[in-house]
């Protein structure tokens, strides 16, 4: 920790991810994005990197719960018949990718919007529904973090250059310390994944789960990282 402008600033990983003030934000681990039967898989997206990232997310979630880290699941949503989309948002979702009609990705109430089996919230977790890439836009996430005394937001989930990067950036803009877990995020394009992580490393902390898990496990020694 160092002092800048009379304020104490975290500099060590152990300070950043201290369970006393850290939340693990699990972004969009949903069937349409991550499962073989989801819309992205059915449209031919490369799903090869998702199983390892899902397993890494699950290890983080287990460790976080045992250490007393607040776990927050983010669930992307879309209402039918365009009730939650605008022309500008539709251009982002469709026209930029050469699509003339938006598929019903994460349609509210559908199987595609549900969380994958390996990443299910429990009664102790919080679920926040969102309607845009960033989990902060149009949601109560900032309020929930503040009332729980959170200073650091550890991000994992999907998709690297989309909802993960958008949420991590906004976490910093809302005056939280953003941390992105590089082996617990994934997308369908390795080039975009690496480009996103390169940009994110220039702005905030990006690290492997192996740097975080021992710190959390020290608060919960009964949990083995290899379990």
Could you describe the 3D structure shown?
With 227 residues, the protein is an alpha/beta fold. It has a single domain, classed as Rossmann fold. The protein contains nine helices and eight strands. The strands form two sheets. Strands 5-4-3-6-7-8 form a six-stranded parallel beta sheet, with helices on both faces. It has a two-stranded antiparallel ribbon with strand order 1-2. α4 (50-67) runs parallel beside α9 and α7 runs parallel beside α8. The two termini are 33 Å apart. 39% of the residues are buried. InterPro entries: Isochorismatase, Isochorismatase-like_dom, Isochorismatase-like_hydrls, Isochorismatase-like_sf. One of its GO terms (molecular function) is hydrolase activity. This is Cysteine hydrolase.
How does the helix and strand content classify structurally? alpha/beta
The description of the largest β-sheet is:
6 strands, parallel
- Count the DSSP helices: 9
Describe the oligomeric state of these chains in a short phrase: single chain
CATH-defined superfamily? Isochorismatase-like
Q: Which architecture per CATH?
A: 3-Layer(aba) Sandwich
CATH class: Alpha Beta
Strand order of the largest sheet: 5-4-3-6-7-8
- Low-pLDDT ranges: 223-227
What portion of residues is helical?
A: 25-40%
Distance separating the two termini = 33 Å
> Would you tell me which CATH topology applies?
Rossmann fold
**How many runs of DSSP E, i.e. beta strands?**
8
Mean pLDDT: 91
| Principal-axes shape call | globular
Number of domains: 1
Radius of gyration: 17 Å
Strand fraction:
15-25%
Strand/helix succession: EEHEHHHEHEHEHEHEH
GO molecular function, one term: hydrolase activity
Keywords: Hydrolase
Organism: Falsiroseomonas selenitidurans
Pfam family, one: Isochorismatase
């Amino acid at each position: 920790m160092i002092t800048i402008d009379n304020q104490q600033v975290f500099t060590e990983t152990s300070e950043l991810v201290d369970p006393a003030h850290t939340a693990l934000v699990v972004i969009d681990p949903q069937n349409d994005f991550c499962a073989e039967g989801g819309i992205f898989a059915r449209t031919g997206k490369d799903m090869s990197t998702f199983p390892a990232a899902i397993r890494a997310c699950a290890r983080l979630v287990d460790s976080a719960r045992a250490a007393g880290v607040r776990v927050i699941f983010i669930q992307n949503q879309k209402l039918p018949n365009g009730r939650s989309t605008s022309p500008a948002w539709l251009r982002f979702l469709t026209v930029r990718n050469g699509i003339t009609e938006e598929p019903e990705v994460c349609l509210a109430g559908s199987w595609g919007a549900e969380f994958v089996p390996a990443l299910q919230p429990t009664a102790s977790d919080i679920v926040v529904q969102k309607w845009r890439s960033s989990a902060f836009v149009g949601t109560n996430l900032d309020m929930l973090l503040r009332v729980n005394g959170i200073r650091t937001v550890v991000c994992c989930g999907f998709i690297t250059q989309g909802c993960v990067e958008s949420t991590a950036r906004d976490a910093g803009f809302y005056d939280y310390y953003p941390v992105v877990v590089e082996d617990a995020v994934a997308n369908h394009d390795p080039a975009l994944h690496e480009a996103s992580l390169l940009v994110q490393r220039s702005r905030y902390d990006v690290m492997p789960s192996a740097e975080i898990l021992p710190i959390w496990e020290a608060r919960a020694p009964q949990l083995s990282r290899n379990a």
